[in-house]
Amino acid sequence: MKTLAIIGAGPRGLFALENLLYNLSASKKELQILVFDPSKFPGAGPVWYLEQADSNWTNITERALIGLKGRTEIDYLDLKIPAFPSYHEWANYKQEDTEPDTFPPRHKIGQYLNERFESLHTILKSSPNFKFVESKVVSLEFTNDKLIVKTQNESYICNETLLTIGHQPTKQSQQLKSWHEHANTNNGLLVFDEPYPVSKFDNLKNQTNRTIGLRGFGLAMIDVMRALVINNFGNFKIIDPSTFESIYYKSKTQNLKLIPFSLDGLPLIPKPLNPEIDAWFQPTEDEISFFKSEIETYAQGNKQADSIDFLIKPIAKIISRIYEDLGSKAMPHNLDSHQLEAIVLAWLKNQDYKNTLIQDKTIAVYDLIKSYINMALGEQSISLDFCIGQVWRHCQPTLYTSFSHSNLDDELIEEVIALDESTKCYSYGPPIESMQQVLALVDADVLSLDFTNDPDIEFINEGWKLKNNKGENITTSVMINSVLDSPKLLEVSSSIIENLIADDLIQPIHTKLGIETKKNGIVISSEIEKQIPIAVLGRLAKGSVIGVDAILECFGNRIKDWAKSFVERLD
Questions:
Q1: 457, 468 contact by CB (below 8 A)
Q2: What CATH code is assigned to 174-266+440-481?
Q3: What is 3-167+548-561's CATH number?
Q4: pTM for the whole thing?
Q5: What is the per-residue pLDDT across 353-397, written as a single tens digit (0 to 9) for each?
Q6: Are 288 and 294 in contact (CB under 8 A)?
Q7: Do residues 250 and 237 lie in contact, with contact meaning Cβ atoms separated by under 8 Å?
Q8: Closest CA to 477 of 213, 181, 192
Q9: Which of 379, 440, 452, 459 has the fewest C-beta atoms lying within 10 Å of its C-beta?
């Protein structure tokens, strides 16, 4: 009997195991299955860890989690694995179109995922064909056509391995190294390399007279911000439930000051308030079909693409139609669809492109956040860039499915991924409430937006002196990195990946991207004379696939394709 090792039992590993069992059940084939994961809560993984703070929120609406469908009953060998409900059924989710969207804390989704895994494990653990190893895999070796999976204490031999290990540590940047060196030579200075878990800031957040620099101005920064300010000295209070307008009230005097900064200094853009407003930006089924067809003609077909136009032209056509249909909800204009299309194309090629329909991003950051909040509430004329970002979000699942494992050249793949990343401040935007909290902290003089745009940083004995383009400066004694590195394979520092690269068993699709894989998930190795029996699903395959950071992609067709292909070739 052959043995498969699934390394990583987060959401992707969970869904891979479920689909593997479906296909084994249908084929009546037998298999020894080993699942490795060191987590206390398998199924959830570190992102959805059950014991993380309530202040870590998702950036996906519960409404959108309709894509977390349930599991039907599985009969495999002598085992009867029960069905498991969809997320909406499990959470007893109900919502009217005019009710605000809800964004659950991450641990709530983690609880769903962990319960779903345990409902499998409870049955599988009685089978001699299954073993769950609660250990971290430190290396994976390929010898004599067999794979050796090594944990710190044991070794296991298997025929094939599936890697679903998600976020991996990366090599420390030069900037962070220099910050640590500075902190090591000056007492009282602190540097944190990672934003999670936010519990590491528990001692820090109840200190007063601290000025803290936050490297990054994205979703992780907001989680860190909330963790620091919900403390013994103060908390948030919503003063207008219809808009989530909030205040930060201080129950005791505190002198905490947060200073976020990033390379472009631009804020995240909140998602629309409710289903009714979000529907303004929803393409029709025919438009989605048109978009899919246009992409696949180049990405999966024989037609050659020499620029990114194959992607942006069809989506620009959809966006221009939607913006026209917004009518009085849009910024005033007298342009036809072709003229709007031209502006959309120009903006997608260069987001510094200026037009009266594009939100002016040179205004004060506070006013910029307020403007986008009002658009998300439907209380202000919608700018064209806001519309582009929301339509892009609705088109993303189609893009991710149609573009993955494309036959485009590597440079064009990198360009498409870069464009998708650049729109994430809209498409992966936070709840309105998060951005209202940012404004509330500014009003309470707890957070400053004066240094967001790539400040000069000088090392001084007291810490780090940040200087903005107005000549203003502020000194921080703590630096927290909230930037989550993208999955560049050659920058990953975990032992299992470094070992596979050193043995030439995996290679990047591009120096700036992840592992190159086939459509069945099998890695493309430099040892081209043989197929290496290692498959990779998820974040580390970025480039071969895109959309790797979305929770719903963990339950998508790529996992189903891998399971079907694996069982078909199983002897």
A1: no
A2: 3.50.50
A3: 3.50.50.60
A4: 0.91
A5: 999 999 999 999 999 999 999 999 999 999 999 999 999 999 999
A6: no
A7: no
A8: 213
A9: 379
